[in-house]
Known about the structure:
By secondary structure, this protein is an alpha+beta fold. It folds into 3 domains: 4-103, Rossmann fold, CATH 3.40.50; 132-201, Dna Ligase, domain 1 (2-Layer Sandwich); 207-458, D-amino Acid Aminotransferase, Chain A, domain 1 (2-Layer Sandwich), CATH 3.30.470.20. Helix content is 35%, strand content 25%. It has helices spanning 11-23, 40-44, 63-73, 89-98, 107-114, 116-125, 141-151, 174-192, 249-265, 297-304, 308-316, 397-410, 420-428, 441-458, and strands spanning 4-7, 27-33, 47-52, 77-79, 101-102, 155-159, 169-171, 197-201, 207-215, 221-233, 236-242, 270-278, 284-290, 333-340, 342-343, 349-350, 353-354, 357-359, 367-371, 378-379, 386-394, 412-414. Strands 13-12-9-10-11-14-21-19 form an 8-stranded antiparallel β-sheet, sandwiched between helices. Strands 3-2-1-4-5 form a 5-stranded parallel β-sheet. A 3-stranded antiparallel β-sheet has the order 7-6-8, with helices on one face. Helix 3 (63-73) runs parallel beside helix 4, helix 4 (89-98) runs antiparallel to helix 5 (107-114) and helix 12 (397-410) packs antiparallel against helix 13. This protein is a component of the acetyl coenzyme A carboxylase complex; first, biotin carboxylase catalyzes the carboxylation of the carrier protein and then the transcarboxylase transfers the carboxyl group to form malonyl-CoA. This is biotin carboxylase.
Amino acid sequence: MFKKVLVANRGEIAVRIIRALREMDITSVAIFSEADRNALHAELADEAICIGPAKSLDSYANPVAVISAALATGVDAIHPGYGFLSERSDFVTLCEDVGIEFIGPNSHIIDVMGHKQHARDTMRKSGIPITPGSAGLIYSIEEARDIALDIGYPLMIKAADGGGGKGMRRVEDASQLDALFSQAQNETEAIYGNKDLYIERIIAPAKHIEVQLLGDKYGNVIHLGERDCSFQRNNQKFLEISPAVSLPLEVRKNICETAVKAAKAIGYQNAGTIEFLVDKDNNFFFMEMNTRLQVEHPVTEMVTGVDIVKEQIRVAMGEPLTYKQEDIQVKGFAVEVRLNAENPRDNFRPSAGHIDQLMFPAGGLGLRVESALYPHYTLPPFYDSMVAKVITHSNTLEDALKIMERALYEVTVEGVETNIDLLEALVSDEYINWDRVHTKWLETHYMPKWLETEVNTEE
C-alpha cells in the first residue's frame, strides 16, 4: 500500500492524479517549476516542492531533479501522468535503482515500445498487422529511395523515438523525398540525439483508432473499448469519441481483441494504449503503443465507469486488476474536446498571460471538465497550450454533442486567446458526416470552410 506518491507533472493531469490520490487516502506530493509557483496542482497537493526553472528540461523533464524531490519527500511511488518523463525508460531505471515504484510499465517494455521501429518488429513477430514499410532503420537517402520504390507514395518518414509530430515528414512523390528525408533526419538528431528513422506507407484516408488497455503483474490484460481520435490538426488530437461509431461492431471487436493479444505478447503491465490506422475498407494496422496514461482517457472512463488512474495506482501496488473482461460494458457515447490557449485564426499561434475572467460550465448530467486554470491565474508561456478538457456523455452521440454544445457555450476565458469558437462550431455543425471523418479531414475539409466563414462574418 502506498502512503505517499509524487506526481511528476503539471496542469490538468497533475490535478486529476492528485484528486484520485486524495480519494484513495494517499498523500500527494506536487513538483513545480519556478513559473508554476502559483499553479493549481501545487496548491491542491498535500506537499509541494520546487524542482527548477521554468524550462521543462530543467524541471519537469529533468530526471535527476524529479528523483531528488522524490527522495527528499520520502515517497513510495511516482506517477508521471503523460508527456515529460512518462515514457523515458532511463527515468524508470532511476526509479528502480532507488527503490521507488514507477506507476507505469517497466523500463524494458518502454524501451521496446517507445522505439517505433522496434515496436513494429515486435508486433509483426506477434502476428499483429502493421503498415507496409521499412524492415529496419533507415540512415541514408539511398535506402529511403529503395523503400519508396517498394511501397509507393505517399509515404511518411518518422523518427523512431518520435511522438507528437516531431521528426515526421509526409512525402507525396519522389521529387520531395531527398529534401524531406534530410529535414526529418536533421530534426530527429536535434531533438533525440540520433538519426534513427523509418518509413511507412501512408494509409489515406485513414481513421485513427486506439484501444485502452489495462494489465496487472499477474498476466491479466483487458481492454476498455476503443476511441476514435481521427479529429486531428498537424498530427495533434483535437476531439475524441468513444465508442468508434463509424466502424462496424465486428471490426471494433477485432481491433480490441488484437490490442489485447499484442499487450499480452509483451507482458504489458499498467495502463497503455495501442493505436491503429483503419483504411476505407476497414483493414486496420498497428501504428504505435503509448506506454502511459492518455490525454483522452476520460472518454473511456465515461463510457465504462472505470477509474483508469486509480487502477494504475492499484496495479503498481501489486494488486490484481479490479475488473475482468466480462465486467467491462461500454454504455452510451462520450466526447472530449481540448480547449487550447491558441488562436486558430492566426495559424494556431499559442497564447499566454493573465486570466482576467474565467467560467466553466457549472455542471449537469453527463458533463466533466478538467482544468488547472482559475481566475487571475497567469498562464505561463513555457508549456503545452492545452488548458482544459471538456468531456460529455449520454445515451446517444447526438445527445452527447448537444451537451457539449451547451457546455462550450457557457465557457468564458478572457485574457488569453483560445480555440473555443472553433470547438463550438465543430460540435454544433449539423452537416458533418461523422462517419467520413479521417485524420486529415479537419485540416483539409473543415478548417478552410470555417476560416472563410469567420472572414465573411467579420466583414
